[in-house]
Specification:
single chain; eight-stranded parallel barrel; binds flavin mononucleotide; alpha/beta; about 350 residues
């Protein structure tokens, strides 16, 4: 896969992604299995992970490459976003590679085959931890109800679920991050969780573009409702310091330029929740030192997406092994010991 990257980058980004996913499906990618060690093995919200390096949502929206992705080195993967009904998403082009910035801008708008098709694929037995990113249909009259529906349908077949109220590509979706709306939404989702055959962890995924008051409200609501943890963060609307000619495209920016702001939000949420709930750090991670930085800022596990576009799927294994070495170098016996040890540096 890594050797194929220059060729893939000659294709339009969305085509390249589809070809890459197909190659994965066909077994044309490294499949070392998730690396593990006593230092890397960890627990998050009751899930036992071989290592804390996960695949972020949006990479495999329709859950078509679950088994190969679980073999590529990740300790856990997140599929979706899934919405109740299938939907085509926004018109193309809607994905842009910002190579000089090691970044991407996407405005997909939850294109996916719908919860039923995705549930069927996830119902097959698998080896490893997989979760679903919950989304809402663009034309939905009750978005909160959509999240609950998708959880009821796919929840029995996954190990965790994520309430995604932070995609910038569905109009007004992020309004659900406001205090009252968020409380009602999370309560509704948790009621559905109580009806599942097994009480899987439910995480909340937030945007990086929130001010201090909004972060305080979210932390308070998350703790009060009893959700399992927070994923910090989704893509950003900010555009500072970019060089690529695609910098002014509308949508969410991911990759290197997101690292700093998403890590700051992570550290702030870590401080606000004071260790009361596990956090997952995502945004701009492209090497083991950056994964370690997320852990020091307060994350118990890490996810990534955009760096795979530039470095290939072998990156999962590379970061995991690199993180193991860093933990040893820094004298940590395990991930849990390292969590939030450098938080103040990132606030
Ligand atoms: C093309 C693309 C599609 C995405 N789709 C979703 C999605 O459906 N749901 C979601 O919660 N996040 C989605 N994300 C956001 C990622 O999961 C992640 O939070 C973000 O890209 C930051 O991580 P990164 O810098 O490692 O890419 C998407 C990102 C990209 C680049």
């Amino acid at each position: 896969m890594k050797l194929g990257l220059p060729a893939l980058h000659l294709l339009p980004p969305e085509t390249a992604h589809a070809v890459g996913l197909r190659a994965l499906q066909l077994g044309m990618a490294p499949a070392p299995g998730p690396a593990t060690s006593p230092r890397l093995a960890c627990k998050i919200a009751g899930l036992s992970l071989p290592n804390p390096i996960g695949l972020a949502a949006g990479f495999d929206k329709n859950a078509i490459a679950v088994a190969p992705l679980l073999q590529s080195g990740f300790g856990f993967i997140e599929l979706g976003a899934a919405t109740p009904k299938p939907q085509p998403g926004n018109p193309k082009p809607r994905l842009f590679r910002l190579s000089p910035d090691q970044a991407a801008i996407n405005r997909f708008g939850f294109n996916n085959q719908g919860m039923e098709a995705i549930a069927e694929r996830l119902a097959k037995p698998r080896n490893g931890i997989a979760g679903i990113n919950l989304g809402a249909n663009k034309d939905s009259e009750d978005r909160a109800e959509d999240f609950a529906k998708v959880l009821a349908c796919i929840g029995p077949h996954v190990d965790f679920a994520t309430v995604n109220v932070s995609s910038p590509n569905t109009e007004k979706l992020r309004d659900l991050q406001g205090k009252a709306a968020l409380k009602a939404l999370l309560q509704g989702v948790l009621e559905v969780r109580a009806t599942l055959p097994k009480a899987i962890p439910v995480f909340l995924k937030i945007a990086p573009d929130l001010d201090s008051k909004a972060l305080e409200d979210i932390a308070e609501t998350a703790v009060a409702t009893g959700i399992s943890g927070i994923i910090c963060t989704n893509t950003t609307l900010a555009r500072e310091g970019l060089q690529s000619r695609f910098a002014t495209e509308a949508g969410g920016l991911s990759g290197q330029p997101l690292f700093e702001s998403s890590t700051r939000v992570l550290a702030r949420i870590s401080k606000l929740t004071n260790g009361e709930m596990p956090l997952i750090g995502v945004g701009g991670v492209s090497d083991a030192e950056q994964a370690f930085a997320k852990i020091r800022a307060g994350a118990s596990a890490v996810q990534l997406y955009t760096a795979l576009v530039y470095k290939g799927i072998g990156l999962a294994q590379e970061i995991t092994l690199g993180l193991d070495e860093i933990l040893q170098r820094e004298g940590f016996a395990n991930i849990a010991e390292a969590v939030a040890t450098g938080r103040d540096e990132y606030l």
